[in-house]
Design a protein that fits this description.
Distance between the termini: 28 Å
Shape: globular
Number of strands: 17
CATH superfamily of the largest domain: D-amino Acid Aminotransferase, subunit A, domain 2
Helix content: 25-40%
Strand content: 25-35%
Order of helices and strands: EHEEEEHHEEHEHEEEEHEEEEEH
CATH architecture of the largest domain: Alpha-Beta Barrel
CATH topology of the largest domain: D-amino Acid Aminotransferase, Chain A, domain 2
Number of helices: 7
Structural class: alpha+beta
Largest sheet: 10 strands, mixed
């Protein structure tokens, strides 16, 4: 994913240690010069029970992002795996989020990984579902994680003002694409509906959900859903690194029975199984 740097990187670095180019540094001594770089490529990985969830797939996506700008990964898979395991052990943090960042526009491709602040949904959020709003706006490049400060600020203001969990983006054609920081899935009768990959960020959790649907013969339609028809839905949920699979209770005031929907229940259960299997595999 391609990321144009924002000035909140320094605040992102938490806990005691980070790793830069294979060397351990203290967070308090963190040199934030790299945040003024024009282009950074990054991934955020969730750590559960000391395991970086779906690490291989995050690294694969990072490699693809580098190729989009005609660059190569500076380190091998095994090297990156060693770094992240060391970072987890050094900080003694079995749960959290780790950000991996590569300076893509410098002769020396600095590779930094560090823990960042995170917010996970509560048990009540999963049990009852969360509220969302619609936001009419779209990314300049939906397949690249290019952060526009102005766009992000406006969306965050709407989320905060509406006291909701997420803003669901609607494009110029009136079709829902994705969440501001997540992927979105709708349920209509026996179908799961989600935007085509060409219109969204290719989320790691999203891909796992599509695999679950295929394995369990759940029919998927990949198309943009018109926002005017949201009241006709039988359910909806958010997917992402931090929320995992999170039912939606309201979209712009429209009530949904997502937590009671059988298809969503199956997906949540099967995703939980995938997470457990991966943790056991890593160990």
């Amino acid at each position: 994913m391609i990321f144009i740097t924002c000035l909140y990187f320094m605040a992102d670095c938490i806990n005691k240690f980070l790793i830069k180019n294979g060397k351990v540094e203290k967070c308090v001594d963190f040199n934030n010069d790299f945040i003024y770089s024009d282009i950074n490529v990054y991934e955020v990985i969730r750590i559960i029970n000391g395991v970086p969830l779906f690490f291989e797939k995050h690294l694969e996506r990072m490699e693809k992002s580098m190729k989009l700008i005609d660059m190569e990964m500076p380190y091998s898979y095994e090297t990156c795996k060693g770094y992240i395991k060391e970072l987890i052990e050094l900080n003694d943090k079995a749960c959290g989020n780790i950000k991996m960042v590569i300076n893509a526009d410098k002769p020396k491709k600095d590779f930094t990984m560090f823990y960042i602040k995170h917010e996970y949904p509560t048990e009540v959020d999963y049990k009852e579902g969360v509220s969302t709003i619609l936001y009419h706006g779209e990314r300049n490049n939906p397949n690249a994680k290019i952060v526009n400060d102005d766009f992000r600020e406006k969306v965050n203001e709407k989320i905060k003002g509406g006291e909701v969990y997420e803003a669901i983006l609607v494009d110029r054609n009136g079709r829902v694409t994705e969440g501001s920081k997540s992927n979105i899935f709708f349920i209509k009768e026996d179908f799961v509906i989600t935007s085509p990959i060409s219109d969204v960020l290719p989320g790691i959790t999203r891909n796992e959900i599509l695999e679950i649907c295929l394995e369990n013969k759940i029919k998927v339609i990949e198309e943009g859903y018109r926002y005017e028809d949201i009241s006709n839905l039988d359910g909806a949920f958010i997917s992402g690194t931090s929320p995992s699979v999170l039912p939606i209770r309201y979209i712009e005031g429209n009530a949904l029975s997502s937590t009671k929907n059988d298809i969503i229940k199956i997906i949540i259960y099967k995703y939980g199984q995938k997470v457990k299997e991966y943790i056991n595999y890593w160990r």
